Amino acid sequence: MELSDRFYKFLVEFLALTVGIIHQDHVSSLFENDRRFSHLSEIEREMSFRTEMGMYYYYYKLIVESPSWTDGIKKIWNDTHSQYPSEINAQRTYNLFPEIVAGFLYHKAKSFNLFNPPECWDIERGYGLTTVTSCEGLAVPSYFYIQFVWCFASLTGIILFLYATYLSESIYGGFIASLSFFFNFTECTRVQWTPPLRESFAYPILLWQMFSVTTVLDKYKSKEEKKFQWKDIFDNFPFWKIFTSTTLSLACWQFSQFVLTTQLICLLILHWMKIIPRELLLKITATHGLSIIINSLFGNHCAFSIYAALAVGIFCSDNLNTRLEHTLSPKWLILTNIASTIIFTYFQKFTLIMAYVDYNHVFDILKAKLTNYKDFHTLLYTCSAEFDFLPYENYEVIIKTLLLPTAILAGFLAMYFWYRNYKILGYPDCIEPGMAYNGLQTGAFILMAVMIMRLKLFMNPHLCIVASCVINKKYLMKLGIKTESMRVGLLIALIISMGYHGFDRISNEIKYSAEYKNVEQEELFEWVKAYTPPNAVFAGKMSVMANLLLSTGRPIVNNPFYESKEMRDRTLKVYEVYSRKDAASVYETIRNMHVDYLVLDGGLCYGHGNVKPGCRMIDLWDVTDNGEAKRLGKRSLCRILYSGDSHPFKRVFANDYYVVLRLDYSTYVEFKPKVPLLRS
C-alpha cells in the first residue's frame, strides 16, 4: 500500500471515529436535557425507562445486583416474575444478549476496581415530595448501562461515515451522509429518548451487516457462474463479517429477521436481473442460514420466521433449477426460479411459521393495513402512532432539509452512469452491484416506513447513505463536472442548502430542556413496596407492569412483550377490565390467573390524552364483540371500578391516576399494614 493510500485510509478512519464521538456526545446531551437524568433518584431513573424498556433494564439490574454474573444468569434462565406463574428462560424470550454483556462488563469492572467512587448529592424536588439522593458515575448501574448504550450510538456514527465514504468513493460523501443524519436527527434515530430498546443495540450491527454485504457484492462481481461450495464461506474473511454481524443482530433484536428478509429479497432481485451470480447469492444466503441455526441453538425463534422460510426457499429453488438448466432456456429458467422460490417459501411459511403462532400477528397487522380487517390485537398496534402510516410531517422534514431530493438525485446520477457505461461494457457489467443493492434496500425501507411510521428509523439513515453518492466523482464526470474545485463548490453549495433548515433543527433540539416527573406512579410503587408482600402478583396495563416489575420486584402476569402469543392472550384477559363485561366474570378470569392485585390506569379507563377516534380501550372492545354490549347499554367496567364501586374486588389504593384492587382468596393471608391503605 502506498503512503498516500495509507494516509487516506488513516484519514477516513480518523474522521469516522470523530463522527462517532460527536454522535455519542450528542445523544447523551439530548438524553440529559430531556429528563435531567443526573438529578433523578434511582426509582425515577427506572421509571423513565417506560414500557418494555423497563423490562429490559430489569434483567440488567438483576444481573448487576446478583453476587456474581453467573448467579444473575441463573436467575434470568429461571425467571418466574415476568410471566407468573410460568417459569421461562428470559434470555431466549426477550433477546437479552445486550443486558447479559453489559452485566458481565459491570461485574468485571467492579472486580478489578476500575470504578471511581460515585458523586452523590441531595436533590430538593418540590411538589411536596421528599428529598432524594442522586449519584453519578460509572459505579452507578444505571449510568454504566447508559454509557454502554452510548458506545453503540458511537458505532452508528462510525459505520455511517465509513459506509457512505465507501459507496460514494469519497470523504465528501461521508460528510454529506453524516451532516444529513444530524440535520434529520429525530427522523433517523430515537436512541436519545429510548436507550434500552433493542434497536439501540441491533441497528448499528445491522448497518455494519449491510455495509459488509455491499463490499462483498462489489468485490465478487463476475459473469462466471461457479459451483457453490460451503468451504468457500469458511475460508473467506468478508463472509465471516457478514456471518458475525448477522448473528449478533439476530441475538439483539427479534425484528432484525424482518430487515434481513428484505435483504434476501433484494439479493434475489439482483440475481434474477443477472447483476450478481448464483454462487454469490447462495454464499450470502448460506451465511444467513448459519446465523439462523446458531441463534436457534440458543433459543431464538428465528427458525420459525418468514426469514428462515425464504432462506430455505432459495436453496430449494436453486436445487430445482440446477436439475432443469439443461432443459429450459435462460428466460424460462429465470421465470421458473422466481416462481419456485415463491412457492417453496410459501410452503415453508405454512409448515413452519403457522406451527409457531407467535409471528401470526405480523401478517394480521399487514392485513389490517391493507384491508378493513380489525381485531383487538391489531387495533392495539395500529392505534399507536408508531404503527400508523408515515404522516405528512415526516415527508416535509426530509424534503426541507433536502435529504429526500438529494437521495433521489443520487439515484438518477447512478442510473445515468450505468446507462452511459452500457454502451461500453454492456449488461450486466455496466451495473454496480453494491449501489444497486443499496438502491433496492432503500426502496424496501421506504415501503416499510410508509406502512409503519416507526420504521422510518431504517429509511432515513439509508437515504443519508444513498444521498452521499451525489458527490461521487465518476457520476459527476459524466455530467461534465471534472475538476476538484467544481466538486468542492458543489459540496459547499449542497451543505449550505441542507443546513438552511438543518442547523435550525439541531439548534432547537439542543435548546430543548425538560425534567422527568411521574409523581402518581412513584406513589404507586412506593405503596406497593411498603404494603404488599414480596410475592404478591400484579396485573394491569402492560407498560405499568414492566416498570412495576423493575422498581418493586413483584411478579406480574402480563408485560409489554406483545410479540408473544401467550402474552397477547394474557393481556386480552387482563384488559377485560376495560370492557363492558360484568365485574363478576372479569373477577373470575383474573382470579384464575393467580393475580393478587389489579392496577387500573385512569388513562385507559377514560381515554385521556391524544387518542385517535375509535382508539379508546372501550372502542377496541366494542369492535371485538361487534358492539353487542354497547347496544345493550352496558357501561365500561373500568369506570365503575375506578369511581369507587369496586365489588367484588377490594379497593386498597387510589391516587389521581391509579387505583389498585385486591382479589381475596380463601387461602390468602392478608398483610396487615401499619397505616391505612386507602389514599385519595
In words, what does this structure look like?
- The chain is mainly alpha-helical and 680 residues long.
- Helices cover 63% and strands 4% of the residues.
- It contains 32 helices and six strands.
- It has helices at 3-35, 42-48, 52-64, 69-77, 90-94, 97-111, 141-168, 171-183, 185-188, 198-219, 231-234, 237-252, 256-272, 278-297, 306-324, 330-353, 360-370, 376-382, 392-400, 403-425, 433-451, 456-467, 473-477, 484-511, 519-531, 542-552, 565-574, 583-591, 602-606, 617-624, 628-631, 637-643, and strands at 119-123, 132-136, 538-539, 597-601, 650-654, 658-662.
- The strands form two sheets. The chain has a four-stranded mixed β-sheet with strand order 3-4-6-5, with helices on both faces. It has a two-stranded antiparallel sheet with strand order 1-2.
- Helix 15 packs antiparallel against helix 16 (330-353) and helix 17 packs across helix 18 (376-382).
- The longest helix is centred in the N-terminal third of the chain and has 33 residues, at 3-35.
- The radius of gyration is 27 Å and the shape is globular.
- The chain starts with a helix and ends in an 18-residue tail after the last strand.
- 44% of the residues are buried.
